[in-house]
Specification:
The chain is α/β, with parallel strands linked by helices and 626 residues long. It folds into 3 domains: 144 residues, Urease, subunit C, domain 1, CATH 2.30.40; 341 residues, Metal-dependent hydrolases (TIM Barrel, Alpha-Beta Barrel); 123 residues, Diaminopimelate Epimerase, Chain A, domain 1 (Roll), CATH 3.10.310.70. Helix content is 29%, strand content 19%. The strands form 3 sheets. Strands 1, 2, 3, 4, 5, 20, 21 and 22 form an 8-stranded mixed β-sheet that branches. The longest helix is centred in the last third of the chain and has 18 residues. It is globular. The two termini are 26 Å apart.
Length: 626
């Protein structure tokens, strides 16, 4: 990639594509007047140090012209199938041409012939489908693939069954291997908090931990507790980040949220070797699923952001070596009431300027407002159905959330706030409303993610305030065959029908919806957008076509789901002028599917293969037989 293209990818849409076209090294390009070159260079230099919200109109100047076929033939031409562009002005096309890292032609089959040359690779879609590359707008691929290492007990029911699998797995591990696993839930334990003595019986004096299927809880044995120096004297971090304890105060073997970090750190969860092994399961395989861009919703290597910087630096090194197959928009996060909102915003500004490469930037503040509803770590508007004296809790109060919104927005960046119940959602909505009353919301692209429960009265406020709703569609099914019963027990059928995963209601309200698979809350194969898309369209578990849809009215159309996973995601990340749709001048992030999704039985969408993924016009995954 040439210098101008590097700048363009690094500095955002302010880097005009006409400058890249002017000095592209692949072939002779149309030259621009010196004054226009200088103006474009100045614009890019300003964008390098200007946060997104402060760039004004310059940040979204749109893709520029890419010259003509006389400047050089296309590297790729696609035709002969469904080309669904996500461009409302031209929803479908007959042909697309790519030269270098840009889309240079979108139109009919006759016009594309002008771009054909002796070395052009011709792809006959044969009735298959070409789409923009998928944009996963909430995931943890940089580090939390580590939660999927070791023995997988997902889907097993009962502690005896789980322990039997753990015991058999340990037999195959060498003496020095780290003992770890994942996949249990409170439901799989019959609602009983797991104990360290249960693991002790199969591990002996070797330390071991098992993360819950969503990473919010940890089950550990006595040896792991001793290795980490955890005892009755170890203080809980907060009311949502704590150890379950025996009557004498000794941790019983079950911890919640960040209370787990002390044990995870002691067992090498954050070592460079572990993280690189984890990325092989996440970042390196994402192109196989058609993903070209994702938002890193939180690298978690320790109690503070400083422990995470080295992970971003390693990603930048991979990018500079040409080994990073994804665009990444990263985050600075806040997880504690002890965090100073101004300092979090200042760190975000610092990282945004310092930690950059062609395909890596950090421009979002992530805040966990609560924990998980099913474990009681999120706030409901009314009491739990199975615990009438309890309606949960939040990690942050509304005033602190408001201060973080204001500090982040004043610094020029967007918020991304985790909520998992309707009381938490209302608290966050109210915080946004108060913040906007004080400082306005012009140009903002703040996000509320998960949206597990939203009261119907709160649905209209998303669009009214310009908020984006991020969702993981697979959770809106009877996930793992336990979600329906689990939520029936926790909140009852009335609230399920009215409020649970209201992705369709939000869609119809006019709210912009984006999708993300959210590893580790989903399993590794569920990283695939086509699995999530099917769940969005059917509200059924993948592979269970006879399932009853979980709240059937929350289903969305294939067209809506595709937009949520492409253009809407790019919009959330302020990349819509570069990716997210198939338009002349945009970066050539494209995916070829083995069938036209509009012609596939919805319950079979997950079976459609991804045949080719291009990022910047180069294949990052290719099983296409042209």
């Amino acid at each position: 990639m040439c210098i101008a293209c590097n700048w363009s990818a690094m500095l955002g849409a302010a880097a005009t594509t006409s400058l890249a076209a002017a000095i592209h090294a692949n072939a002779a390009r149309a030259t621009l007047p010196r004054r226009r070159l200088l103006q474009a260079g100045a614009l890019m230099a300003a964008a390098a140090v200007t946060p997104p919200l402060l760039q004004g109109g310059a940040a979204h100047a749109g893709p520029g012209p890419m010259g003509s076929p006389a400047d050089g033939a296309a590297d790729w031409i696609f035709s002969g199938g469904g080309i669904y562009t996500m461009n409302p002005a031209q929803p479908w096309a007959q042909a697309v041409a790519v030269r270098g890292n840009r889309i240079v032609y979108v139109g009919d089959g006759t016009g594309v012939e002008r771009w054909r040359g002796p070395r052009t690779r011709l792809v006959d879609l044969k009735g298959r489908m070409l789409l923009p590359g998928f944009v996963d707008s909430h995931n943890h691929l940089a580090s939390l693939g580590a939660t999927k290492l070791g023995v997988n007990v997902r889907g097993l029911q009962g502690k005896d069954t789980i322990l039997a699998k753990v015991k058999d797995w340990i037999k195959d591990q060498p003496p020095g291997a780290v003992l770890r696993g994942h996949g249990w839930s409170m439901e799989s334990m019959g609602g009983i908090s797991p104990r360290r003595e249960w693991l002790d019986a199969v591990t002996g004096d070797r330390p071991m931990y098992l993360l819950s299927f969503d990473m919010h809880d940890l089950w550990f044995n006595t040896a792991a507790m001793q290795l980490a120096g955890v005892s009755a004297k170890t203080a809980d971090l907060s009311k949502t980040q704590y150890f379950e304890r025996d009557p004498d105060g000794t941790p019983s073997g079950h911890s919640h949220e960040d209370a787990s970090l002390q044990i995870l750190l002691a067992m090498g969860f954050t070592s460079p070797e572990t993280i690189r092994e984890a990325q092989k399961l996440t970042i390196d395989v994402a192109p196989r699923h058609g993903i070209t861009t994702y938002m890193e919703a939180g690298v978690i290597m320790g109690a503070g952001n400083q422990e995470n910087e080295w992970v971003y630096r390693k990603l930048i090194e991979r990018d500079q070596a040409g080994e990073l197959p994804l665009r990444i928009v990263g985050t600075v996060w806040t997880r504690s009431m002890g965090d100073d909102p101004a300092k979090i915003a200042a760190l975000l500004k610092d990282w945004n300027q310092r930690l950059r490469s062609d395909h890596v930037q950090i421009s979002v503040c992530k805040l966990w407002s609560d924990g998980v509803l099913l474990s009681g770590g999120a706030l409901t508007l009314e009491a739990f159905s199975d615990d009438p004296l309890n309606n949960g809790r939040m990690t942050f109060d509304g005033e602190h959330i408001q201060r973080q919104i204001e500090a982040t927005q004043k610094a020029g960046f967007d918020m991304h706030i985790h909520v998992d119940a309707d009381g938490s959602t209302r608290t966050v909505l109210d915080a946004y409303e108060r913040a906007f009353a004080r400082i306005g919301n012009r140009g903002t692209r703040h996000v509320i993610c998960h949206n597990t429960m939203v009261h119907p009265n709160d649905i209209p406020h998303y669009k009214k305030m310009g908020l984006i709703a991020n969702a993981t569609p697979l959770w809106g099914t009877d996930y793992d065959g336990i979600y329906r019963k689990s939520y029936e027990k926790r909140i009852g059928n009335q609230r399920i029908e009215e409020r649970l995963f209201p992705y369709g209601d939000l869609q119809r309200s006019g709210t912009i919806i984006s999708y993300g698979a959210d590893i580790p809350g989903a399993d590794l194969p569920e990283l695939a957008p086509l699995i999530q898309l099917e769940a969005a369209v059917t509200r059924k578990r993948v592979g269970f076509p006879k399932d009853e849809p979980l709240v059937a009215r929350q289903r969305v159309s294939v067209a809506e789901a595709l937009r949520n996973y492409t253009w809407n995601g790019a919009y959330q990340l302020r990349l819509e002028d570069k990716v997210g749709s198939i338009e002349t001048g945009k970066l050539a992030d494209l995916v070829v599917l083995g069938a036209d999704l509009f012609k596939v039985v919805p319950e079979q969408i997950h079976t459609v293969p991804v045949l080719l993924t291009l990022m910047d016009g180069r294949p990052t995954h290719n099983t296409l037989q042209t």
